[in-house]
Amino acid sequence: MKFQVEARKRILQGSGASRRLRRQKRVPAIVYGGAAGPQLIDIDHNEILLNLGKEAFHASVLTLNIDGVAESVVLRDSQRHPWKPLILHCDFQRVDAVHAIHQRVPLHFINADIAPGVKISGGNVSHTHNDIEVSCLPQDLPAYIEVDLQNLEAGHAIHASELIFPAGVKPVVHGDDYVVVSIPAKKATAEADEGEAAAG
Q1: What is the reported pLDDT for 188?
Q2: What confidence tens digit (pLDDT) does each residue in 149-177 have?
């Protein structure tokens, strides 16, 4: 999925200028990285609010049209109001075709209903992580990583190193090889224990 975001350059900064922009339903933002210096911009609030609600927007190379000039960027951060549906600020990073980027992409879990740990053992799937950081060239950035649970048994887990990544995409694992998803073994219930005791 391709996303385009319209933006305008801005000169004024500070809390007062940001409040004025928000009253105009604009969101202050910044673009940084690459050979060019940081550029202050503002974007339409309703457009960015709608896009931030789409999973793919967070794991895509975006086209940012700044006063008609297109730049390839990824979303690095967005600040939201604590309880109102308001976006307060966005950070974008420039990308190019020859430099690898680090980006978090969502995990899509499939076949949970036929996993032996669920279907045979009656266990529940426990998602430890819902996304993973990857390193790749911008053009290789996947929209998501698929995690197939069809062979996962109770008491077992799938680790980050066991995931299957598209060509040119590598996981960025900090520290130990962590668990992504598991099906914990079911413990005997108190009723079952009491029944066994009575039978004994």
Answers
A1: 60
A2: 999 999 999 999 999 999 999 999 888 88
Question: What is the chain written as a DSSP string?
Answer: ---EEEEEE----SHHHHHHHHHTTEEEEEEE-SSSPPEEEEEEHHHHHHHHTSGGGGGS-EEEEETTEEEEEEEEEEEE-SSSS-EEEEEEEE--TTS-EEEEEEEEEE-GGG-HHHHTT----EES-SEEEEEE-GGG--S-EEEE-TTPPTTEEEEGGGS---TT-EE---SS--EEEEEPPPPPPHHHHHHHHHH-
pLDDT tens-place string over residues 182-200: 999 987 654 444 555 444 4
Residue tagged 């086209």 (tokens):
63
Q: Identify the sign of the CA torsion 13, 16, 22, 24.
A: negative
Report the predicted TM-score, pTM, of the whole model to 2 decimal places.
0.82
End-to-end CA distance of the chain: 63
Closest Cα to residue 75, out of 98, 96, 51? 51
